[in-house]
Specification:
two-stranded antiparallel ribbon; Spore Coat Polysaccharide Biosynthesis Protein SpsA, Chain A; alpha/beta
């Protein structure tokens, strides 16, 4: 297991319908994608970070950001996310994929490492904390999925349904007999917290958190965020109405 290359592959694009250009919305003059990459870099187990975007011209802003900041970037199919992930993993010789989405700018590296540890020390084909999307204990915005390039190659060859192609992993977690799966849960249910960025209210909440944490030099992690929102109900309530039941709506 020592020689297997583990990479975070983060999907990002400009053309979001609900909140356009959200990955590049700025807080303290830095885009959300900058903060997300910073969070992922804290991981002790990830060897590489790759941003995957679509070939559409509008995403050149993401490509330029990556180039300027020395971040690996891959452009692929606009609609077929499975293929985009597969080709990126192939190009950069990735063995284990940690799938992340750019609407999770506050992702906690401790959660990433905990799930990687579970994956690498077990025989599971798929390890996640918010997939399948029911009976969740983690907040939306702390989403991590882990699987091998071998599994991804298989899914790329078999996957045909539009929703499967657009969301990468539903094909895996539907095939319970084919793939051995593990879902990590928290002892304390924190699914009432909403830390994803899909709407302007979400951005406002995330902006508040980043500014407060940076100003006070507090480490951004789930435990500290939970404590901050518990003692600042006015911030917690900003996007509360958006925390509806999970829909397959993550950024691609």
């Amino acid at each position: 297991m020592i020689n297997r290359k583990i990479a975070a592959i983060i999907q990002a694009r400009i053309g979001s319908t609900r909140l356009p250009k959200k990955a590049m919305l700025k807080v303290l003059n830095k885009p959300l994608l900058h903060y997300m990459i910073g969070q992922v870099k804290k991981s002790k187990k990830i060897n590489d970070i790759i941003i995957v975007t679509s070939i559409k011209k509008e995403n050149s802003v993401i490509r330029n950001f990556c180039k300027k900041n020395g971040i690996k970037c891959f452009s692929g199919s606009d609609k077929n996310l499975v293929n985009r992930y597969y080709l990126a993993a192939k190009k950069f010789n990735i063995d284990i994929i940690v799938r992340l989405t750019s609407d999770c700018p506050l992702i906690d590296s401790h959660i990433i490492d905990k799930l990687i540890e579970k994956y690498t020390s077990s025989k599971y084909d798929f390890v996640a904390n918010t997939s399948p999307p029911y009976n969740l204990t983690y907040p939306d915005g702390m989403d991590v999925e882990i699987f091998s390039s071998k599994i991804l190659k298989f899914v790329n060859s078999k996957c045909k349904i539009k929703t499967d192609l657009e969301h990468v992993t539903p094909y895996i977690w539907r095939k319970k007999k084919k793939f051995k799966q593990f879902k990590q849960n928290l002892k304390k249910n924190l699914s009432h917290l909403r830390l994803t960025v899909d709407y302007s209210e979400d951005f406002e909440l995330i902006r508040n958190i980043i500014i407060y944490f940076k100003k006070n030099k507090i480490n951004i992690n789930l435990n500290n965020i939970r404590k901050y929102l518990a003692s600042n109900p006015d911030v917690y309530l900003i996007n509360k109405k958006r925390n509806k039941n999970f829909k397959l709506n993550h950024e691609h």
